[in-house]
TrEMBL record:
<dbReference type="InterPro" id="IPR013096">
    <property type="entry name" value="Cupin_2"/>
</dbReference>
<dbReference type="Pfam" id="PF07883">
    <property type="entry name" value="Cupin_2"/>
</dbReference>
<protein>
    <submittedName>
        <fullName>Cupin</fullName>
    </submittedName>
</protein>
<dbReference type="InterPro" id="IPR011051">
    <property type="entry name" value="RmlC_Cupin_sf"/>
</dbReference>
<feature type="domain" description="Cupin type-2">
    <location>
        <begin position="69"/>
        <end position="132"/>
    </location>
</feature>
<dbReference type="InterPro" id="IPR014710">
    <property type="entry name" value="RmlC-like_jellyroll"/>
</dbReference>
Length: 322
């Protein structure tokens, strides 16, 4: 690969382009300061304003959410996997029909493989702007977002209407539903009854991994974080590893699948075929195409860690439900 080829596959944290109108709660007080990012793949945005940095389909999507303190993402569900790790800040994740079935607080580096089929939301409970990085299963990210009924009702009070085509219309800006497009119907009681209400004790042990536990597991080999035989045993259509200084693959090697590198701490030197190299920093996202030989090593002393994600042949959704 030429340097230009590789640079086209690296999305720098400082170059991320946010969308502030990505979802139906974009005008709802308490959620109206969110910034959403689609880094790789089409994502699940409901807005035509969403910028996609790398549109290649690799079997999963990479995105991010940035929020100031006390800003929350409203209750929603996905048909496929949704995994978050905290890049910056302190975050509370909550779930259930009304968001009160259970909750967990994640610190920087912690990762949460949120079960499908439950309503979930999250908020920045830190003191500064926070960022969480997201992995969404499937090339189409499961066909969009399923909102709790109260979210759709609250949004309508603030001018945003979601059409049954999955697109947002801002009535306060003069938009209206096109002919043949009806408002997205609310889930009825029978449908809502199919959404589990697991407790914190049921969710956290099998779906949350703490950063420092993973660091300890990755001293000589990458820690298997999500996968059939990983710490979080699941088969959501991709596998996730944590790599640290002692487990970095320093020999040149190719992969038989696209590979995504997402640094968490430290600065990483990425060498790739052709004799060129690039430095990856926390918050950057790098897509290494299939068959491209590369090597990876921390470029400075100190703490260094990154998450590595690869697609698998499994369906884009977990095998375990409540």
């Amino acid at each position: 690969m030429t340097p230009d080829d590789m640079n086209a596959n690296i999305v720098r944290y400082g170059d991320l382009i946010p969308c502030k109108t990505a979802f139906i709660d974009a005008h709802t007080p308490g959620s109206d300061q969110k910034e959403n990012f689609t880094i790789i793949g089409g994502g699940v945005s409901e807005s035509a304003d969403q910028h996609v940095h790398i549109s290649e389909k690799i079997g999963f999507n990479i995105g991010a959410a940035g929020q100031p303190p006390k800003c929350r993402n409203s209750l929603h569900s996905h048909r496929t996997a949704e995994v978050f790790f905290v890049l910056k800040g302190r975050w509370r994740f909550f779930w259930g029909r009304w968001g009160n079935a259970g909750e967990v607080v994640l610190e920087e580096g912690d990762i949460f493989n949120i079960p499908t089929g439950i309503f979930r939301g999250f908020e920045n409970i830190g003191q500064d702007y926070g960022m969480i990085m997201a992995i969404l299963g499937g090339d189409d990210a499961g066909g969009g977002v399923i909102w709790a009924p109260q979210v759709i009702e609250d949004a309508a009070d603030h001018g945003l209407v979601l059409g049954d085509n999955g697109k947002l219309y801002d009535t306060k800006a003069g938009d209206h539903l096109p002919d043949g497009i009806a408002p997205m119907p609310l889930l009825d009681d029978a449908a809502l009854a199919t959404y589990p209400e697991p407790s914190t004790a049921e969710v956290v042990p099998g779906y949350v991994a703490r950063y420092w536990d993973l660091v300890a597991l990755s001293d000589t080999a990458p820690a298997k974080v999500i996968g059939a035989d990983a710490k979080l045993r699941d088969r959501p259509g991709f596998e996730v590893d944590l790599i640290t200084r002692g487990s970095a693959p320093t020999d040149m090697h190719p992969h038989s699948h696209p590979t995504v590198l997402m640094p968490m701490r430290g600065h990483w030197k990425l060498d790739y075929e052709g004799g060129s190299s690039a430095t990856l920093n926390p918050g950057d996202t790098c897509l290494i195409p299939t068959g491209v030989s590369h090597a990876l090593a921390p470029s400075m002393t100190g703490e260094a860690s990154l998450y590595r994600i690869v697609p698998t042949e499994d369906p884009a959704g977990p095998t375990v439900r409540f």
